[in-house]
């Protein structure tokens, strides 16, 4: 049990997918203007990453490896991810039109979110079991959501302060997220 | 080669079928956001936004082809409400806020042609043929659609004078 | 021991959140110690029709009409309003606009009265035994006399008394706090007319059905406390309670909490917890209205500030221009050369006025001429998040967070932080080390939100009108179509009838012919 818990914790915090592995930066910069939409994006991505991690594990272990078609891995994974995202998009459009509107282009862009493909590929590389793959996917997504939320909260506060004109907008956001990355580095220790 | 093409085709087809089925269950009729926005708009179809009526403007705002500030009669309040609904950032300075205006008829010029009262979206102009018309101050939304219909230029837009009850303390300069 | 006590007080205050407010230098003396000077009636009085909260009064006199002192000039309109009476005898010369005692510098409609110098009262209906009157009768007399809250807000007193009676309040809080610096008109009134005030308080107790009246007086007015205690000694229901001098102790909600220990709920009114608050000067005006039938036509005004040559309290008729009050009080030092700001009311919550030709209204408690040292205007610096404003806020709000959101026009978020509870006392701006005009942000935001609400109401009204127009157009089209259909039917019926008649006509001669042939 503690093994699974540690796996979850280490993927969410120590090996954070955004700030340590630098995957999925596009939505972190794009959908972090308000905490509400950040939460929506985080939940959608969590759903996609977890589902894609499971689906790609099945695809890899039951089809690609037995038939020796490992070279089709990236291609077929993309196909699976795209379908999951398409499904998520349909679901959100039905369930919460407001969130669908506020996520805008970033919702279909989950397809090209490298964190999703990255987690699926890392699963294969580390030869996890199905359950561990799901857990790894969920943990990574949790880390992604956490960073997105913290960053959105910070940006909401930064928006209230008087930022010099040259720093306003994206520049101050980059400065902020780099400081956040430094903070997350603390989880893995400064043993570099 | 054939195995690869075949397997990917099969995979794609299978996923496509699943999505097709899902689409049947998750079908959305029209765009509910547009409907919500139409309900929020003034509904007078005055055309100041440049779109055909309020529903046209709502569609354009949802598309992103018009800013949430495009509705002059709605003003700041509507812009803020729409932006909150859609999660958009809103630049309130884009609203030309030179105060509310209403139409006023110069009685000595009015010939009683009824052209203005026909186009008024809120029936704010009272008048019969060959009678001097008048504008109900309370009902006029300041959309100025009547102005160009007047053949004698008797209609002009006048700013509503600020009263003590309507005065708003100016925002302090940024600290 | 003294140290321990102080520590305990400090700790208790910290724990109870009872350390709100500020302690500005009160500048009350020497003005408070100078005897009241009664100003003679000026040549012209400028009487705004709206000197109170609520609907503006409607004039009942004509230009050129002669009126005697105390005669009705304008009547109350609507539920919340107050009438206006002639402060002296004379002639109505105009109904026009005068500059309002308001920072906007806008004007408002007013009656201009030219004094005839006789200063003759109209017929007054005195009442020998007001305690025999019913509470409703007292309310009517107060309403007819145009008495409004003289503390500054100018809420019609009769409306408040009636509301208190309906809400069955138990406690009447009399506000003798006068926490605003510079002002001493209430202090002076309590020293000079304590017996009258106590009589007025007893009448208000009778009118509201409250059992006890708590008179809160700040402890920096020992003479007023002594005078009031002496006057109230024989009445058990009237209790004089000294309260610590601290701004804004005279604010309704704060005074109630200090005197009764009960907090007024955020979206509630004092009546919800069985309390009603009136000012000491209002109590005296109520007494005059009920006992003598005298309307509210004059008040005490504090003339103060470093630029004033002889600070003091002046009894002036409502409608006197501030210019004339200052001239009577001794004028400005050096002809007003060092003048930095003109204020009507107190320095914290009063109105900055654009010039001196502004009339004294019922709610004007002071006329202040401040010099640059007193104004201490400074360029604001960025917020350093020291939290001084949070500690000073008597309502327990977070002024720094609210102002940051208001600056970004996120008014909705400012409301979430409690903007609607802000009483605009100005403590936050007073203590701010960065000199950020915090309270101005809040006043601006409140005005802006009110404007947005108005716009929203207007939008809804517009929508209704547009819908009604659409209905009308549809109805007209339908009626037109129906009329056309009816006409068509009639035409067809007529045509059919005609055809039938023709057919019959053509058949008849034919038949006749046949008959003829047959014969």
Give the helix/strand layout.
The complex is a heterotrimer of chains A (192), B (175) and C (519).
Chain A: H1 2-14, H2 25-30, H3 35-64, H4 73-95, H5 97-103, H6 114-126, H7 130-160, H8 170-188
Helix pairs in contact in A: 1-7, 3-4, 3-6, 3-7, 4-5, 4-6, 6-7, 7-8
Chain B: H1 2-25, H2 32-40, H3 53-63, H4 75-86, E1 101-105, H5 115-119, E2 125-126, E3 134-135, E4 155-159
Helix pairs in contact in B: 2-3
Chain C: H1 2-16, E1 37-38, E2 44-48, E3 58-59, E4 66-67, E5 72-75, E6 84-85, E7 90-99, E8 107-115, H2 135-144, H3 157-167, E9 171-176, H4 185-192, H5 194-208, E10 212-218, H6 222-232, E11 238-243, H7 252-260, E12 275-279, H8 280-292, E13 298-304, E14 312-317, H9 322-329, E15 339-344, E16 351-352, E17 366-371, H10 372-375, H11 388-392, H12 399-407, H13 411-416, H14 427-431, H15 438-518
Helix pairs in contact in C: 2-3, 2-5, 4-6, 5-6, 5-8, 12-15
Please give a quick description of this structure.
Chain B has 175 residues and is mainly alpha-helical. Chain B is built from 5 helices and 4 strands; from the N terminus they run ααααβαβββ. Helices cover 35% and strands 8% of the residues of chain B.
Characterization of this structure:
By secondary structure, chain A is mainly α. Chain A is 74% helix and 0% strand. The longest helix of chain A has 31 residues, at 130-160. Helices cover 35% and strands 8% of the residues of chain B. Among the domains of chain B are: 32-86, 3-methyladenine DNA Glycosylase II, Chain A, domain 3 (Orthogonal Bundle), CATH 1.10.15.40; 99-161, Alpha-Beta Plaits, CATH 3.30.70.20. Chain B has helices at 2-25, 32-40, 53-63, 75-86, 115-119, and strands at residues 101-105, 125-126, 134-135, 155-159. In chain B, the strands form two sheets. A two-stranded antiparallel ribbon of chain B has the order 1-4. The mean pLDDT of chain B is 83. Chain B is mainly alpha-helical and 175 residues long. Helix content of chain C is 40%, strand content 17%. The model of chain C has no long low-confidence stretch (mean pLDDT 90). Chain C has a domain at 380-500: Fumarate Reductase Iron-sulfur Protein, Chain B, domain 2, CATH 1.10.1060. At the A-B interface, helix 3, helix 4 and helix 5 of A face helix 1 and helix 2 of B.
